[in-house]
Amino acid sequence: MRVLVIPEDFRKDQYILKPIVKALLSDIGKSRAKIEVCKEPLPGGVGEALKSSRIADIIERYRGMVDCFLLVVDRDGNENRRQRLDDLEGENPSVGFLAENAWQEVEAWVLAGLDLPGEWVWKEVRSEPDVKEVYFEPLAKQLHVAEGPGGGRKSLAEKAARKIARIISLCPEDVGSIKTRLETLS
Description:
Layout: E1 2-7, H1 10-27, E2 34-37, H2 46-49, H3 52-62, E3 68-74, H4 81-91, E4 97-102, H5 107-112, H6 122-127, H7 131-142, H8 153-161, H9 164-170, H10 172-185
Parallel strand pairs: 1-2, 1-3, 3-4
Helix pairs in contact: 1-8, 9-10
């Protein structure tokens, strides 16, 4: 299986999405799957990533080279984001196109796979619209990885991905959904 992950902006998200999606695919028995993160064209933010024309351009460019297109954007507290993703899926029903929004930001997926400070309450972390600024970045600094690739995302996501079952359990609305939907494609 060949998967092209389409982030809203690959520059930091790639460090989270590639290891998490790879772990998800391994979890469903697709450990030899090839995962690439779309870098060209650069969507450049959630607004661009949700444009039908942008998605059509990406699909046209990579058609035949991948089996699954997986768009992942942050929810950012927008309760209507799922509807837009459903619309995009409806526009692209025959190309293996899946769209999901991280609840609230993809950095929460990394936090779900890590041992968090004892005073943090997962329900609060999970519901925080600005989880990146409020929780992820302070933890990356505390763990002395903030200066690494992606502001610590690379090392922390690789570590977190080793606990994919825990991430799925703590993030069923998004990571669990992606797993289920990838299973139906394979």
